Amino acid sequence: MKTYFIFSVGFCLILSSCNHPREQKVQISDVMLTPTPAVSEMESVGNADMARRPSPQPPTNADTAKKIIKEGNIRFETRNPKAARQNIVGSLQKLGGYLAEENETNSGETNQKEYSLKIRVPSKNFDAFLNGLTSSADHIESKNIHIRDVTTQFIDTRAEISNNKQLEQRYLQLAAKATKMTDLLAIEDKLASIRTAIDSAQGQLNYLSSQVSYSSLDISFYTRQAGEVNPGTGFAYKFKTALGEGWEVLQNMFFALIALWPLLAVIVVVWLLVKRWRKRKNMVIAPQDIA
């Protein structure tokens, strides 16, 4: 009886051990064969919304275009400086430029009247303005044009501003979470330094943008005095010139006499003394002759 009981228990254990792996195998197969769950409605809507959103676009042409600065100077001779100035100002108005500075000088050594203008003209119209100016000049003495590519400097400055603004936002977030006064003061010092850097970089960027948008040109033009440009050879011109020169000589003599007034005063005093001395001498000699 006892032996039969032991045999029965052992047989049950064997059966249970055989059925357990089978059941586990079935469960694993069921998991492997189970289809993947469908995407939830919220996830599908989100994915559809993301699909409709535009992908990040590269920088626009205005951001990636080359930044060129044009500047230079030109010097020429003209017969009519007033007309040349009017032509320059009129051309500037048509092309959207303006006159930034103007000077006029008269040189006594070279007997020339010279005008100096500093103009600003939109970069896209710089070549057209320069071509019109050179075509109207009588004689070009010198012309120098300088072109600088500041694209790298422009991009670096904008990147510096962007990075400093991001850093400023991080410090502002830290300031909102800070509870100690020492931390707040340290953050404020950092923010002041960052804002100063942003303002400096922004000023430099504005200056570069202005230089890129408007080109600069220094213009100098001159003319000799009318008497030297068109001297003339006729009788009327020579007669007029002689009268002018004679009047100029008379003026020079008059002003020379005025400049020599001390010498003239001395001569007059000496002449009066000599005249008085002779008069006394004659008075002394006259009685002796009577005797």
Gross morphology:
elongated
Strand content bin = 15-25%
Q: Write the CATH fold name of one domain.
A: Alpha-Beta Plaits
Placed side by side, the strands forming the largest sheet appear as 2-3-5-1-4
The whole-angstrom Rg is: 51 Å
Spans of at least 5 consecutive residues with low confidence:
1-7, 17-62, 227-231
End-to-end distance, in Å? 215 Å
Highest-level CATH class of one domain: Alpha Beta
Give the averaged pLDDT, no decimals.
Answer: 75
Level-2 CATH architecture of one domain: 2-Layer Sandwich
Instruction: Give the structural class.
Output: alpha+beta
The largest sheet, given as strand count, sense and whether it forms a barrel, is:
5 strands, mixed
Helices and strands, in N-to-C order? HHHEHEEHEHHEHHH
Tell me the helix content: 55-70%
Count of DSSP helices?
10
Number of strands: 5
Oligomer: single chain
